[in-house]
C-alpha cells in the first residue's frame, strides 16, 4: 500500500479493508479507547431519522453504524465497496440490507433516501467531492447529510500530541491486535492528510448541500458535519428542526 494522500487507488483501499474485516470493529474500539461508540451515537442523533424513513449508510463496513437505525425501525441500507466487510456484517445482522457500491457511482435512483450518512469513510474515497455530489443526487429534497470523519484538533498543543499518537503509537498498537498492521499506518497517514473542518464544510456546500454546520468531538479529533439538500418534503420541517436544534446547542458559525 502506497503512503496516503488525497489521491487513492480504490482497488488498494478495497483490498485493505477486505483483509482487516474480521477484526475491524474490535481494533477500532481499542484504538479509539472506546470513543467510537459515543461518536456513532451522536451521528444517529444528528441524522434524526424516524421509523419508516430510508437512510443510506455509506462506508458502512460490517454494519456497526447501521444497526441503531435498523433497531429503531428505520429502513437502512448499509453500503460499502469492501465485500469482505459486507460479508462479516451480513452474517451478524441478516436483517439489514447490505449492498456493494462505490460512493462515487452509487447504485441507487435519484431522490431515494431521506438521509445519507458516512462515518470514517469519506477520506478513503478516491474523489470525495464527487461522492458528496452523488450523495446529494440520491437524497430527497429536504433530506439530510451527516458526515462523521477524523479531523484537526482545535488546541495546538493537543494537536501535536495527537499527531505523535497517530504516527507512532497507533501503528504499534495495531501491530499487536490487527492481522494487517500496515493498513493502520495507511489509516494514520490518511487522517493526517485529511482537510480541516472548514474546508470539508466548503466541499459539502460546493457539492450542492446547504446550511452546513459541524460539531467537534473529542477536541476536534473527530468532526460531525450536517447539511440539508435544498427543497422540502412533507415530513421534512419537523425532523430538520429537531436535528438542527441538536446541532445548534454546540455551535459556532459553522458548528452545530
Secondary structure elements and their pairing?
Layout: H1 10-20, H2 24-31, H3 35-47, E1 54-58, H4 67-71, E2 75-80, H5 83-92, E3 97-100, E4 113-119, H6 128-138, E5 139-150, H7 156-177, H8 181-193, H9 197-206, E6 210-217, E7 222-228, H10 236-248
Give a brief description.
The chain contains ten helices and seven strands.
Please explain how this structure is put together:
This protein is α/β, with parallel strands linked by helices. The chain has one domain (10-248): Rossmann fold, CATH 3.40.50. 45% of the residues lie in helices and 19% in strands. It is built from ten helices and seven strands. It has helices spanning 10-20, 24-31, 35-47, 67-71, 83-92, 128-138, 156-177, 181-193, 197-206, 236-248; strands at residues 54-58, 75-80, 97-100, 113-119, 139-150, 210-217, 222-228. The chain has a seven-stranded mixed sheet, with helices on both faces. The relative contact order is 0.16. Residues 1-7 and 248-253 have low confidence and may be disordered. Keywords: Menaquinone biosynthesis, Methyltransferase, S-adenosyl-L-methionine, Transferase. Its EC number is 2.1.1.163. It catalyses: a 2-demethylmenaquinol + S-adenosyl-L-methionine = a menaquinol + S-adenosyl-L-homocysteine + H(+). S-adenosyl-L-methionine binds at residues 62, 80, 102-103, 119. It is an enzyme of class 2 (transferase).
Amino acid at each position: 500500500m502506497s503512503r496516503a494522500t488525497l489521491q487513492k487507488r480504490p482497488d488498494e483501499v478495497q483490498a485493505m479493508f477486505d483483509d482487516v474485516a474480521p477484526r475491524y470493529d474490535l481494533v477500532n474500539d481499542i484504538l479509539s479507547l472506546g470513543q467510537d461508540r459515543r461518536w456513532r451515537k451522536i451521528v444517529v442523533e444528528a441524522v434524526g431519522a424516524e421509523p419508516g424513513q430510508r437512510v443510506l449508510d455509506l462506508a458502512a463496513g460490517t454494519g456497526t453504524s447501521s444497526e441503531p437505525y435498523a433497531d429503531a425501525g428505520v429502513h437502512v441500507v448499509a453500503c460499502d465497496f469492501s465485500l469482505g466487510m459486507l460479508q462479516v456484517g451480513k452474517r451478524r445482522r441478516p436483517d439489514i440490507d447490505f449492498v456493494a457500491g462505490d460512493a462515487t457511482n452509487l447504485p441507487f435512483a435519484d431522490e431515494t433516501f431521506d438521509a445519507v450518512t458516512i462515518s470514517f469513510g469519506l477520506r478513503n474515497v478516491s474523489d470525495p467531492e464527487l461522492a458528496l455530489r452523488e450523495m446529494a443526487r440520491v437524497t430527497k429534497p429536504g433530506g439530510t447529510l451527516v458526515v462523521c470523519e477524523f479531523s484537526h484538533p482545535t488546541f495546538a498543543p493537543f494537536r501535536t500530541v495527537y499527531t505523535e499518537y497517530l504516527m507512532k503509537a497507533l501503528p504499534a498498537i495495531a501491530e499487536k491486535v490487527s492481522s494487517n498492521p500496515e493498513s493502520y499506518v495507511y489509516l494514520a497517514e490518511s487522517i493526517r492528510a485529511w482537510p480541516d473542518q472548514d474546508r470539508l464544510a466548503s466541499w459539502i456546500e460546493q457539492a450542492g448541500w446547504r446550511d452546513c454546520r459541524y460539531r467537534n468531538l473529542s477536541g476536534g479529533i473527530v468532526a460531525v458535519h450536517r447539511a440539508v439538500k435544498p427543497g422540502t418534503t412533507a415530513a421534512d420541517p419537523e425532523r430538520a428542526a429537531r436535528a438542527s436544534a441538536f446541532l445548534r446547542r454546540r455551535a459556532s458559525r459553522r458548528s452545530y
